[in-house]
């Protein structure tokens, strides 16, 4: 068992980074404190639009007042299905001010996925894009008995740009069966809803649905205390100045974006820069316009930025810290990015169930690479957090040995929404069993090997896809890589690799297989390599191995 206080490098951190974390009771509390301190400071920057803390406060008050007028009560659930626009933040604070629980939903969900969320969470209010409402959600919401309030928004609001790279829809205006979010907020602007109980750290802030890779998606109940702890831990750990600009590279509906970008930014009274959704050229332009000090995103986003023909060192010159999370970070990518653009990408590790990070790389340090496996460390546990590597019986394994990663700390959710059996299995006695395989070295650095379910069994030998992928990423022609097991009559399973290539590169697949064979044990190298234009990903940037596995 290793805790933060055991770390041999602790003396290298400054006093603020070593100190225990003392979070606000909630991010809403931190937001109200920022409104009091810096009312005129820009809270949200969206293309050429700006909202100050005072304006954001008044508009979110309007949404809260509207919800309360419509009978929305403390503890009711509101689904927010929006991209990275100011509406998302206004809706989030509006729901919390009304005493509600936010259910963040991936905008790429379809009717069947949304039906499950609306039913499972018994959602009262739906907040979505106008085109989504017209496309399918009006009918889906109408079929859900609990839904009785709907608000719609348009990505063209609150700015004047006409960037067709991402802003592709026309403004549709008020929709049948729904009210316009921005018009509603302005109509009720500045009305502080009365009679709403004060939020506490133990109140549920989010019901965050997992991806459902191992069954029906479950709702992790992230409390206000979970979020506020990790937001404050990130703010003090990074050492960013008060009022720093954060760029929302990760989507806000994902726990990484929600906590590491939005909540951490607000906790420090900063400016959150938004650009609707990820498009490499738009993001690079936004970096030059907003000059952010911090961002966090999946490794695949950095691959796309590196591959963009317009990318230069100046695009990244304002950053004090760039972090990666949500997808494996190959060591070769870290070095390529630093050589081309300057910043060192800091790794991190977390899950929805531990409200984003439970381990990260402190600013003064660089993550080591394991000499045997070539795996880049994801970081070290933070204050008040204990990470264990355990065997199948839940016993600690020695340093350097692989086992399941288990996490205990103030960021771990109390459970899954109305799923006591799943809670008891995944979070026994408050300790999260992550389902990830990893190991820890004697200095306390954590390494993630892979997901339990992704392990390939080739002739009785264990092959972890991450190890093969890291070798592929070291090839100069490879942009993205994913490795899966495929049926093999002789071996049971054999290793297959899917790759996308950097611009102008065209290696023969056999060459890539031979490259791996030179660097890996005979049972590990891919017997087949298939080149695709792009690898399938979630909207948070994680490569979908399961889709590739289904291709055969």
TrEMBL record:
AMP-binding enzyme C-terminal domain span: 467-542
All copies of domain AMP-dependent synthetase/ligase, residue ranges: 31-417
InterPro entries, per database record: AMP-bd_C, AMP-bd_C_sf, AMP-binding_CS, AMP-dep_synth/lig_dom, ANL_N_sf, ATP-dep_AMP-bd_enzyme
Source superkingdom: Bacteria
Classification via PANTHER family: LONG-CHAIN-FATTY-ACID--COA LIGASE, NONRIBOSOMAL PEPTIDE SYNTHASE PES1 (EUROFUNG)-RELATED
The name this protein goes by in its record: AMP-binding protein
């Amino acid at each position: 068992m290793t805790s933060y206080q055991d770390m041999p490098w602790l003396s290298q951190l400054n006093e603020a980074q070593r100190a225990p974390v003392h979070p606000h009771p909630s991010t809403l509390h931190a937001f109200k404190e920022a409104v009091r301190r810096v009312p005129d400071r820009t809270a949200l920057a969206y293309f050429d639009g700006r909202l100050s803390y005072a304006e954001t406060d008044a508009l979110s008050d309007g949404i809260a007042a509207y919800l309360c007028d419509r009978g929305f009560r403390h503890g009711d659930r509101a689904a927010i299905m929006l991209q990275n626009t100011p509406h998302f933040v206004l809706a989030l604070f509006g729901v919390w001010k009304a005493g509600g629980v936010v259910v963040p939903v991936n905008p790429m969900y379809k009717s069947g996925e949304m039906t499950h969320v609306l039913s499972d969470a018994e959602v009262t209010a739906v907040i979505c894009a106008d085109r989504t409402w017209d496309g399918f959600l009006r009918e889906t919401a109408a079929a859900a008995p609990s839904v009785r309030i709907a608000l719609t928004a348009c990505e063209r609001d609150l700015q004047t740009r006409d960037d067709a790279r991402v802003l592709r829809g026309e403004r549709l205006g008020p929709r049948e069966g729904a009210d316009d979010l921005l018009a509603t907020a302005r109509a009720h602007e500045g009305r502080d809803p009365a009679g709403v109980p004060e939020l506490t750290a133990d109140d549920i802030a989010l019901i965050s649905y997992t991806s459902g890779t191992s069954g029906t998606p479950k709702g992790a109940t992230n409390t206000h205390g979970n979020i506020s702890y990790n937001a404050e831990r990130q703010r003090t750990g990074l050492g960013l100045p008060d009022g720093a600009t954060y760029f929302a590279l990760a989507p806000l509906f994902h726990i990484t974006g929600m906590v590491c970008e939005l909540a951490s930014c607000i906790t420090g009274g900063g400016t959150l820069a938004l650009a609707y959704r990820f498009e490499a050229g738009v993001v690079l332009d936004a970096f030059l316009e907003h000059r952010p000090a911090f961002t966090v995103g999946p490794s695949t986003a950095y691959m796309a930025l590196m591959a963009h023909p317009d990318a230069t060192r100046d695009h990244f010159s304002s950053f004090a810290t760039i972090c990666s999370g949500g997808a494996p970070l190959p060591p070769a990518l870290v070095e390529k990015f630093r050589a081309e653009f300057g910043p060192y990408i800091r790794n991190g590790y977390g899950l929805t169930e531990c409200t984003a990070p439970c381990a990260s790389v402190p600013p003064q340090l660089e993550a080591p690479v394991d000499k045997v496996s070539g795996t880049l460390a994801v970081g070290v546990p933070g204050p008040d957090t204990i990470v264990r590597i355990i065997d199948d019986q839940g016993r600690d394994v020695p340093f350097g040995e692989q086992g399941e990663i288990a996490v205990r700390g103030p960021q771990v959710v109390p459970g899954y929404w109305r799923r006591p059996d799943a809670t008891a299995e995944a979070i026994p006695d408050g300790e999260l069993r992550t389902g990830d395989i990893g190991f820890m070295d004697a200095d306390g650095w954590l390494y993630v090997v892979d997901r339990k379910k992704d392990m390939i069994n080739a002739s009785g030998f264990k092959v972890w896809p991450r190890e093969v992928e890291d070798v592929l990423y070291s090839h100069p022609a490879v942009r993205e890589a994913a490795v899966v097991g495929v049926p093999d009559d002789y071996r049971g399973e054999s290793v297959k690799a899917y790759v996308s290539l950097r611009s102008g590169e065209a290696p023969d697949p056999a060459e890539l297989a031979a490259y791996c064979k030179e660097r890996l044990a005979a049972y590990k190298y891919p017997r087949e390599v298939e080149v695709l234009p792009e690898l399938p990903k979630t909207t948070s940037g994680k490569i979908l191995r399961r889709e590739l596995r289904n291709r055969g």
